[in-house]
Write a structure and sequence with these properties.
Layout (H helix, E strand, L loop, with lengths): L4 E2 L9 H4 L2 E6 L1 H13 L20 H7 L26 E7 L7 E3 L8 H8 L24 H4 L24 H19 L12 H12 L28 H21 L7
Antiparallel strand pairs: 1-2, 2-3, 3-4
This protein binds flavin-adenine dinucleotide.
Length: about 280
């Protein structure tokens, strides 16, 4: 703790606990360069025959980021912005590795944004180079995960039914969404459509102006089928609200306008179903 300090980026959070939710490990330029060299040189897990990796941009392995450019990590998960070294406030760290508490006891921490396919031995060696972690013990090492998903733009209709076999519905990550909330949301929609069908109702498509509707519209038709990859929900999937200011300054109003429009359209959509209560 005489090397690292507790602080959330930009002191974000309401309570002191939230404002100090992360431990920060600072690196000098030399330490960063040595870390990148070690990442690039480390032993990596090989893929099985016939397997290829099309990485999801939201969680690239750190060594893949380092291969894309020595500075990539410093502008990604190791960015030093919004943080002040409590032990040395005058000197801005060149890079920072953040640790997030993983259990209530405060005995486990995970490294934020550090997916990796380095072999286990290499991981402990490389991660001990992080200032403050020289004597860390590693309770669980990292691995990349494979996301198995179908080509929903060609296979599913807007009610998440298999076009060729409409008695079968798909939901969740397998439909080509990524994340807890997204997967659960696709389950909720698939269920609403299924219940409507069973009770003889016809629901209109989920409105694209809402988060769930934007996502389901994307995976079941809006996305480019040839290059289809799992998608998180994001404002880029929504049809634009016309006549709003652009740039950073207009952002708050823009988000508000999207949200207001979504709530209104969602309410109307829910009202269209008499069987499933809103
Ligand atoms: C290491 C890791 C970290 C992640 N981190 C995050 C994160 O920080 N934030 C986030 O939002 N998302 C994260 N995700 C993604 C998130 O976990 C998934 O998007 C989400 O859990 C998918 O939910 P799901 O119910 O659609 O699928 P799953 O949770 O994969 O559920 C599918 C279930 O089906 C079962 N199953 C499979 N085949 C069969 C079969 N033939 N018969 C019966 N059962 C079967 C499986 O055992 C499993 O229980 C992470 C994923 C991983 C692997």
């Amino acid at each position: 703790m005489d090397v690292v300090w507790a602080q959330s980026r930009y002191d974000k959070g309401e309570t002191e606990a939230e404002q100090k939710a992360y431990l920060n490990c600072p690196m000098t330029k030399d330490q960063y360069e040595a870390f990148i060299d070690a990442l690039l040189a480390a032993d990596k897990t090989e893929f099985h025959e016939g397997e290829t990796a099309g990485y999801f941009d939201g969680c690239l392995p750190i060594e893949v980021m380092a291969e894309r450019g020595r500075e990539t990590l410093r502008f990604g998960p190791m960015k030093p912005i919004g943080l002040t070294n409590a032990h040395d406030p005058e000197n801005k760290p060149y890079a920072v590795v953040q640790l997030r508490r993983d259990n209530a006891l405060g005995t486990l921490f995970n490294i934020v944004g550090f997916q990796t396919k380095m072999k286990y031995g290499a991981q402990t060696e490389v991660f001990k180079m992080i200032p403050g972690l020289e004597n860390a013990s590693f309770a669980r090492l990292g691995g990349i995960h494979r996301n198995t998903f179908m080509n929903s733009p060609t296979l599913l209709d807007h009610e998440m039914r298999l076009r060729q076999r409409p008695n079968i519905r798909f939901a969740g990550q397998v439909t080509g969404v990524e994340g807890y909330v997204e997967s659960a949301a696709m389950g909720l929609l698939a269920a609403r459509f299924a219940i409507a069908e069973l009770t003889g109702e016809t629901l209109p498509p989920a409105p694209q102006t809402t988060a769930m509707g934007a996502l389901v519209t994307h995976i079941t038709g809006g996305a480019e089928a040839k290059t289809f990859q799992p998608m998180n929900v994001n404002f880029g999937l929504f049809p634009p609200v016309e006549g709003l200011k652009g740039g950073r300054r207009g952002r708050k109003d823009r988000y508000q306008a999207y949200t207001d429009r979504a709530k209104e359209d969602w309410r109307n959509w829910l009202a269209a179903s008499s069987v499933v209560p809103a």
